[in-house]
Every structure is written in structure tokens, then in C-alpha cells.
Amino acid sequence: MKKRLSLMLVTLMAFGSILAACGGEEAASTDTTTPTETATDTTAPDETATEETGTDSESAIGLTEAEDIATGNDTALARTDSAIIGTVAPQGIFNPLFHQTSYDFYVDYLIFPSLTKVKTDGTYENDLADDIKISDDNKTYTFHIRDDANYSDGTPVKASDYLFTMKLYMDASYDGQSDPLSWNVVGADEYNKGTATDISGIKVIDDKTVEVTVSDYDAMTQVNLGGIAPLSEAYYGANYKQGEIASVKEFNTKPMGAGPYKLTKYAAGQEVDFEANENYYDGAPKIPKLIYKVTTDTTNLAMLQNGESDLDNITVTEDNVEELKAAGFLDVNILKNNGYGYVAMNNKNPMFADVKVRQALTYGLNRAEVVEAAYGPYAEVINIPQSDVSWAYTSENIDPYDYDIEKAKALLDEAGWVEGSDGIREKDGKKFEVNFSATADNPVVDALIPIMTQNYEELGVKLVVETLDFNAIMEKKDRGDYDMFFAAWGLTPDPDSTVYITDGAQNNSGYSNPKVDELYKEGKKELDLEKRKAIYAEAYQLINADAPEILMYQRTNMLGINGRLDGWDVSPYKDFPLSLHQVEIAQ
Amino acid sequence: MEQPSLNRTEQLQEQLKIVKAESPWRIAIRRFAKNRLALIGLIILFIMAIICAFGPLFSPYELNQTNIKDKNLAPNAQYWLGTDKLGRDVLLRVMLAGRISLTVGLVATAISVVIGATLGAVAGFYRRFADTIIMRIADIFLALPTLPILITLGAILSDLKIEPSKRIYFLMLIIGILGWVGLARLVRSQILTLREQEFMQATEALGLRDSRKIFRHLLPNTVPIIIVSATLGVAGAILTESALSFLGLGVVPPTPSWGNMINAANNLIDFRKRPWIWIPPGVCILVTVTAINLIGDGLRDALDPKMKSR
Amino acid sequence: MSQYIIRRLLQMIPTLIGISIIVFAISQLVPGDYITATQNPNLTAERIAQLRALYGLDLPPVQQYFVWAKNMLVGDLGQSLQHQMPVTKVINTYVWNSFIIAFFSFVFSWIIAAFVGVFSAQFQYSFFDKVVTLLVFLLMSLPSFFIGLLAIKYFALDMKLLPTGGMTTAGLNATGWAYIKDVGLHMFMPVVVMTTLSVGGLTRYFRTGMLEVIRQDYIRTARAKGLKERTVIFKHAFRNALLPAITLLGFELPGLFGGAMILERVFNWPGIGQIYLASLNLRDYPLMLGFTMFLAVLTLLGNLISDVLYGVADPRIRLK
Q1: Which residues of chain B are within 8 Å of residue C247 when distances are taken between CB atoms?
Q2: What is the distance between the alpha carbons of residues C259 and C276, in angstroms, rounded to a whole number?
Q3: 3 state SS of A367
Q4: Which of A171, A429, B94, C230 is the most exposed place for a label (fewest CB within 10 A)?
Q5: Residues A23-61: pLDDT tens digits?
Q6: Shortest Cα distance from C238 to chain A (angstroms)?
Q7: Which H, E and C letters describe A226-280, residue by residue?
Q8: Per-residue pLDDT tens for A200-250?
Q9: Residue B103 DSSP code
Q10: Residue C195: Cβ-neighbour burial (10 angstroms; 0-12, 13-18, 19+)
């Protein structure tokens, strides 16, 4: 018993990183990549990189190419017709309607193409659709599916499959992670409630053309509608009845789609094997066989080094970067992560209601030191809740909140918190004592706690720290029973979000600013990119000044890729599987 | 089963009288003091405790002090045991960690031994109803999923706003309470057979009270197994502590413990490149476990009623 | 005896009901549910409500319990939220992978512990005994992931004798003997490490048990001349020494199916331990509860078996 108990408990340690990943750290393991996240805006920017400021830390990020792929690389070079991709275990839900983790998504990318797909710069292009027409009132979308698009069983992809797939999404028993009723498709509610057997807003014009009408549009409408990957009605729909989607799930481990690869074997927790789909409309993929092998972060780096795998996501640490580069035959691609870490302050707590207090706590924390300690050059302090590779990013009129203890002290004095006899500030007889909850075993938290404790002590603020299970922190948050906690958000390519909207579903800090609410609403409705840029810039400036939370850092992800594989096209927005079909094995 | 002859009953009474003549505890102390290895164990443990308690007072470094410039340094004149990834002095952290880990290991084990031995002995001695109740409770304890319970407890302590630095006491209690079942079943199994042996018939004949039978005559016979269980338990508790910290039950970083120091070196690179991060806490646990075991062996020899000759 | 077994089996019913209530209550007390654990940034409040209703999380706890308990009676443990398939199927997919390494390490560790324990006791305080003792303590002082890493570093990375992890060679698609050989090669390291870890504690118990026997032996030899009935005591003493082993044996039954969370992770073994842990972290309650109840049944059975075996080892033990 003793043995079992301690084993179970110590496991938590090993699992700490995953615990954190469950949302604390950008939801790496539970990244719910619904169609919303896959495609981006139509009217794309063409000058994303105009504001690059070539600082020193910038140089650590980006691609470092392999020096010599022939030396010490025999194991991998021996695989002349296949590539092994290391990945965290998928859950075996190979269906874009139901998948919940990025790792299932990695599989689905290869099997289920959607009407539109994302490009490296975060813009999008046609994929399965070769023509998209939008009516003048932005409420009717006509998609034409490529004439040469066939499923891997040889049958053509039809417009009616799109309708079928939409029916599945709108079904009352659909329990996947997408929110299809929010797409405002005409007739969706009726289908969902069972009062109609068809979705009136979706018309199949001919075999390859489908027309979708929405009751209301916003910037996300085309993203949502174009993000659908049609499922073959003949294959998936055999036993489907309205209101009973269970029969569709039975195909979760036997997926069949129109993508570049077809699944040949799935061994749960071990590997997923693929074979090139000869029928693929964009030309047969250049690597005949593909294997997704399950790896863990204890050994995935070693497996890349000794050629057991060709590609893997490696945790970014200075050690790991150094090791990968030292191998010589590996490409090392360090990409900005779509997400950011922050320290939430309970804005509804009178203590943090005063903007000066929130600003003081931001100025008074040496964020640069925390980030440097946790990630070295591979993460950056941020000051707005947006990735600096996004088109919505701005640095104009943004206060960088550089560490300034004197300014922080002055702000607290102004706010009426004056130092007491014991060095702790007080106001109206109340001591400035703050409870801070964080998930443990996170590189940032390890560095944050000692530095924050020390910084705030100097400021005259007593920090009481506890480490807690991630869900326990989230529950405290939901109840509003907290002072401060550390967490992280994942970012969708579109800046639309509910994190800073009054009572928004994701608003963790209780922040409320009517002007910000209005701007977010306006930004969502606006379709012109330049106008949206201006709107979000203004919103970010307001949020920056209000300091509703202490924004901490944007970190990076790293792909280690064997140099023998060429032709990648990856970016923070375009995951590696999206270019796998064009990758070649160098001879 | 042959009835014990008069001759043997007398002999047994004789034995019991000898035990009566000199208090068993005095015999135990006398025997323990004669056991050189056991004394060495005690001295080692004592020295470790002293170093951990007072060593940090002489350190030029502080607990919350990080120094990124000096991170991951190998042992040198300035940092005798090197520094960790935040540039903190490993020596100071090992000493501070010892305070937590030694206390947790010993107290938690003591709790589970007391509960486990008592309940196991009661169940094995009375059998029937007491056994059914105690063992079914033990079954339930064994079957309950530990992690969800601990997560819940962590959240409750947090909601009750129990000061994080005080939660270590709850931690010891929890590890102790969760660990009793194994020992209880082990002790019970031995009592079940011991109670059937002749010397117990003698205690019956002498009209001894149940509590005396259990604690004076039955439990001392199970001491060896208790000691094995306890030595395994100390190491387990020390390593378990670090896991509980994640759930808001243990120490809060940056407070170190031997368990969380070892766990910080959880990848192949640290393992290969920076042995000074994991060797010191590992050695400390090893030395503690060894010392406790030496003491345990001494205790067993001292308390074991069957040992007459040494 | 058969009467005792029947009564114990009947006692299992209320015990299991008790466990199911407590376990379910805990799942209600644990902070968070599947929705909060996954933290999907795209869900609106309405969709969250819809999903909770679809998952059955919106019912009052008592009703949820009865739905769950009723389904369990007919062998339906519900649907795993994260795997989107029946819990029984999830368990069945992974539990056998855990079982094979647990089984082999169980067999090896008991055989080795018995031999080492006996030798170590026979030559107490000898060089052999001291080395074994120190080794056992060394293994106890390091967390298991650490010992796993050590093995990987030396045997897989430095010497390249064994694969770094996983259960099969990627893309090999072997069948028949080739498959068995491949799995055997992959399970070698996890089995060795698991054996090493569990053999330590077991050795201590066996050694102590045997020391008892040997001491009795001395007494017997010393008094052999006159008191032949001492052989009886010796017999009982030996059985006395066997009892702890039987107790530990009972604990092994759930252990065989429970999975080794840390080592499965370190060795990338597709076992149930990791899956269970993920179900807990993601608050996939149907899977977590189902697997807990599965282990609970095994735990009760294991303890029943050891109680029955006590009587076999020592007929004088009368459990009623």
C-alpha cells in the first residue's frame, strides 16, 4: 500500500508539467482547436512584420538550419520512404467534430481538409473550396468545392456532404467542443430543436456548390463556415438519425476523408500510421509513409538526437536548444507561442478596484527578471494581451511598465495605502496582504514566487503564496474568492475574445470598462481589416492603462526537425502537419 | 493439539516473571545502548537534525534570494554545493529542506505506525466483529482514490484560508492517516497466529487484562515487521511530501524539501550535466533512511522478547 | 471455510456500496469539472450550459449517483468524456498493457526477494547482507522516475542495447513471434526497473521474516536435546513468518491492473496509469470513477484471498 500510495503521489510531480498544461500553461494538452481557431480572417494584412524591433532577444527566436545532415544521422537516413513524427498521445478521436486535443488535430489535419486553410502569416487561402462568393449584405456565402476533390475511397466530395456535416454540428446530441449555434446559420435552431428535418439556411445548389445563409454576420462568420471539413455522408451517415449522433462516433478511430493521407493503423497510446492518399487533389504527397509515434518529454529530445524520430515538439529551455543545435543534423525552429501568461488580480475585490493599485503592482514586479530566469532569451515580457506576430498587435502608446519600485511606491501612496509600523502598507486599518495561488512545477512559477515575494515586500505588500491544483484555482476564480492567481491563455488567430468584456465568459479578473466592451463589439462586427486594427489598438491601449491583470510573458515553442526533411512551411499560426504533404525526403 | 505439560506451563510462568522482575523498557534501553550500530544510527540522525536546524543560520545566503547570474554553477569555493537554475545556494537549500523532510518523514511515519499497529492488533486479537469492522474500513481506505481526496483537501485548506506555512502539519497527518492500512493488515496477520500460541494460554491462565495481553505480549512479537514497515515508510513519506505540495498541502515554493529538490532535476540533461542538484538531497534521504534502519534494527533486538542472548 | 468465504463475499456488497458513495461524493467535492478543466477559450456561456446538460453534469448530485450506480449494475460504466467512447472500452484498451509489465515484474520481484531475503537473513550482517541492505535503501531514496531515467540513459542512449521507450518499434507492424520479440525487447527495461523498485521493500520483509525463523531455529537447536515439541513451535514460527508475505500478496492484485503512472510515462508505455491520471487532471469523472470501482473490487478480492490463505498457512487461525 505504502508503495502504491507514494507512487501515485510522486506521479503528480512527473505530471506537474501536464497539470500546468491543462490550461495553466496555454492549454497545450487540451488545446481545443475547433474550426474557429483553424482559419483566420479573409481580408488579411500584408504587412505583419512592419513593427519588428530587432532587439537582441529577438535573434534567439526563429529557424536555425541543420549544418550537415549526413553525419551521425544514419538511423534516420535509413528510412527512405517514411518519416516518424513524435507527438504526445492523441486520444483517438479522429473526427474534426469531436476532437479535443491538438494531437488528435495533428491527425485530422492530414485526413480532413476544410474549405479554407490558414497560411503562415495568419491569413487564409482556399483549400477544398476553389471559389467563395459573399453577398453584398454579408449574409449569404456560396462555396464551390474543387471538382477534383475526392475522398480516399474514390468517391467525390459533394456539396451535400457539407450539409450533412452541418446537420451533425447542429444536432441536439452533438457534444463536441465547437459552438455551432453561435454561427447564426438560418434554420440551425429549428434543426437543433427537432422542429425541422433540414437546415433551411443551407442550400445545395449542385453537386459541388453549397449556399449558406446566416441571420447575422460578424468577422468570424466566414472563418466558421469555411472551417468546416465535410464528412462523407455515405461513409459516416449510414446510421445517423436526427438527435442521435452516437453512430457517427463509432468511426472515430476509422477516419476517412479527402486529405493527403489515409490512416492505416491506430494503436492507442503508441502510434498512428498513414499512407499517402493517391487521390489527393493537390497531388500525391511526397513521403509515402508517415508514422506519428507517441513520445514523452522525458525522452523526445534523445529520440530526435539518435534518429528514432524525425520531428518533435521540444520544450524550450536553454539546455534543450543547445542540445538540439549541437546535433548538427537537426533544424531547430523556435516559434512564438500563441498565448501569454499573466497574474490575475480580482478587480472586484476593493483592494484592486483602484487602477493605481493595479498599476503599482505591475510597476513593482520585476517581470523581466522573472522571464529571464524562467526562459532565458526564449520568452518576452508583454504589455498587451496579444501576440506580437498578430496583425492586431500594437506597441503604440503602450506603457511598457518597466520595473520601477519608486513609481510603484508613489502610486500606492497616492491610492492611500501608507506604510505601517511593520513595513506593511495599510489603508483604513486594513493591511495590504495578498493571497496568491499558482500551479506548481511551472518554470515561470518557480521563478515568479521568490522574485514576487521579494519585490512586493520592498513595496510594503505582504504576499501569501500557495500552490494549488489548477482546477482548484479555477473554481476559486469562478466563485470570485481570490486575490491573485497565475494562469495563462491560449490565443486564437482572431483577436475577438471575451476575456476583457464585462462579465464575458472568459473574463477571469472581473475587469469592466464600458469603452472596452464597446470596442470589442465593434471589432467583431467590422469586416475591414484596417478598421479592425485601429479598433483593437485602441482597446489594447485602454487595457494597458487599466492594468486589469499583470501581463507576464509570451513564450516560444520549438520544433526539432531532422534536416533530411525539406519543404516545411510553418509559423505560429500554421502547424507543421499542414505542410506535411509537400515535405520531401532529401537524398 | 497436545495440552502443554505442567512442566512447560511453569516454564512459561517463569519467563513471564523474569519479564516482570525488570521492566521491559529498562531491558530494552540496556540492550539498545549495547548495540553499537544502533547508537551510530542515532548519532547520525542527531547530527543531521542539528545541521539542518542550525546550519542555515551560518549561511551567507537567504531563502528568497535568487541570483540569475550565478545559475547552475558547479560546486566551488563560494557555493560549496553549487547553485540551482535560479542561482540559489544548494547547500542552504539542502539544510532548509532537511527541516521539512526529516520532520515530515518521522512524524508521518509515527502516526501511521501508531494507528496501524493498534488497529491491526485489536482486529487480530478480538477477531469477529472488531475484525470485520476494522478490516472493512481498511478495505475502504485501500480502495479510495488517493489523489482526488488530496486535491479536495488541498482546495478545502485553501478555502479555509489556512496559512500555507501551517499546512505542513495537515500534510503530516494526511500522509500518516493514509499509510496505516498496510501495516494494520500486516500486524493483524501476525497477531492472528500469535494469539493461538502457548504463551498466550499462559497469559490467559494468569488472568491478564486484554490491553496487557495485546500491548505487552502480542505487539512486541510484531516489532520486526513494524520496523520494516516504518523504515520503508520514512523514505516514502519524504518523497510523497513533494508531490503533495502541488495540491496546496505541502510546502510552498521557494521553501525546499529533499523531495522537491530531487524532483527539480527531472530530465536527462540535468541528470547528466548537473549532478550537484540531485546528489545532495538524494544522499540526505539515503543517510536518513539508513540511520533510521540501524536504529530500527537496534530497537527490534532490544524489544524482541525472543532475544535473550544478546 | 467456504461459509467464511461466502460471508465475506456478501460483506463485499455493502462495502462496495459504501465505497461507491464515498468515491462519488469525492468526485462531487473535487474542484472543477470537464468544462473547467479543458478551459476551451471558444465556448460561450450558453454552449457551456448545453455541454453540461449533455454530459449529465446539470442533474442534482443524488440523481447523478443513482444514474451512475444503476448503469454500473448492468456493466455500463458510462462514456469517457475525453476519449468519447465507453469507459469499459478505454480500460480494456490500456489495462492489459499495464498488466503484462506488472505481471512479469511481480513474478520476478517475488522470486528475487524470496531468495535475496533468505540469503541475507541466513548471513545476517555479512558483506552480502550489507551490500543488499545498502542497495535497497539507495533505491528507496530516489524517486522512481529517477531510476527510470538512469536506466534509459545507460541502456538505451549510451549502450544502445534497448529501445528508449514505447511498446513496439514504430512502423514495424510485426506479427506473431516477431511481435512478441519486439514487445519483449521494449518491456525489458520497464520490467527490470519496476522489479528493482518493488524488490527492495519485499526483500526487507522476507529478510525479517526469515530472521525470525532462524532465531527460533537457534532456540530449537539449543533446546533440541530435551524438548522435541519445539519443532512444533518452529513450524508455527515459520508460518508466522509467512503471514506478512501473504498479506503483501493480497495487495498485489489491484497493483497488477492499476498501472504504474510514473514509469509508464518515463518509458512511454501505453498503460492505464497515465490514462487514469489524465482522467483525473481533466476531470473525466466517468472514466475516473469507473476505474476506481474496478480497482476497488480487485482490492477487496485481494484482501479476501490473503485472509483465506492465512488459514491455509496456519490451520490454527480461525477467522469467523
Answers
A1: 185-186, 189
A2: 9
A3: helix
A4: A429
A5: 333 333 333 333 333 223 333 333 333 333 333 444 678
A6: 24
A7: HCCCCCCHHHHCCCCECCECHHHHCCCCCCCCCCCEEEEEEECCCEEEEEECCCC
A8: 999 999 999 999 999 999 988 988 999 999 999 999 998 999 988 989 998
A9: H
A10: buried
Partners of residue B231 in chain A, C-beta under 8 Å: none
Q: Which of C247, C268, C319 to mutate to test the interface with B (most CBs of B within 10 A)?
A: C247
Please state whether A336 falls in left (phi above 0), alpha (psi between -120 and 50) or beta: beta
| Burial state string for B181-215 with b = 16 or more CB within 10 A and e = fewer than 16 | bbbbbbbbbbbbbbbbbbbbebbeeeebeeeebbe
pLDDT digits (tens, 9 = 90+) for C163-176: 888 888 887 777 88
Domain count for chain C: 1
Q: Which domain holds residue B137?
A: 106-258
Q: List residues bridging with A425 in a β-sheet.
A: A419
Residue A231 near residue A257 (C-beta atoms within 8 A): yes
CA triplet B32, B38, B41: central angle to 5 degrees? 145
Q: Which residue has the cell 486520444?
A: A91
Q: Which residue of C has its CA nearest to A81?
A: C171
Segment C73-82 mean pLDDT: 88
Asked whether residue B180 is assigned to any structural domain, the reply reads: yes
Instruction: Report how far residue A370's alpha carbon sits from residue C158's, in angstroms, rounded to the nearest whole number.
Output: 36
Segment A59-117, tens digit of pLDDT: 678 888 888 888 878 888 888 889 999 999 998 999 999 988 889 999 999 999 999 98
Which amino acid type is present at position A507? Answer: N
Residue of A nearest to B112 (CA): A2
- Residue C39, domain member (yes or no): no
Determine the Cα–Cα distance for residues B166 and A306; give it in Å rounded to an integer. 48
C-alpha cell at A483: 486575490
* Structure confidence at residue B22 (pLDDT): 58
Is C222 inside a domain boundary?
yes
State the Cα–Cα distance between residues A324 and B201, nearest whole angstrom: 73
B139, B156, B197, B279: best mutation site toward chain C, by most C Cβ within 10 Å?
Answer: B139
Q: Among residues A288, A399, A337, which one has the least CA distance to residue A553? A: A337
Residues 6 or more apart whose Cβ sits within 8 Å of residue A236: A164, A168, A248, A251, A256
Average pLDDT over residues C28-41: 82
B140, B225, B282 member nearest C15 (Cβ): B140
Residue B251, in any domain of the structure: yes
Contact, A346 vs A23, CB < 8 A? no
pLDDT of C36 reads 82
Q: What are phi and psi of C247, to 5 degrees?
A: -60, -45
Instruction: Look up the CATH number of the domain holding residue B175.
Output: 1.10.3720.10
| Domain assignment of residue B136, yes or no | yes
Q: How far is CA A31 from the centre of its chain?
A: 6
Q: What's the ipTM? A: 0.84
Residue B244 in domain:
yes
- DSSP H helices, B5-145, are 6-21, 24-34, 36-54, 90-126, 128-143
Cβ A449–B252 below 8 Å, yes or no?
Answer: yes
Domain that holds residue C166: 99-270
Q: What is the CATH number of the domain that holds C104?
A: 1.10.3720.10
Phi, then psi, of A187 in degrees rounded to 5: 90, -5
C188 burial type by CB count under 10 A (0-12 exposed, 13-18 middle, 19+ buried): middle
| Tally of structural domains, chain B | 1
pTM reported for the whole predicted model: 0.85
* Contact residues on chain C for B289, CB-CB shorter than 8 A: 137, 140-141
Tell me which residue in B192, B193, B232 faces C140 most closely, judged by beta carbons. Answer: B232
d(CA B274, CA A160): 61
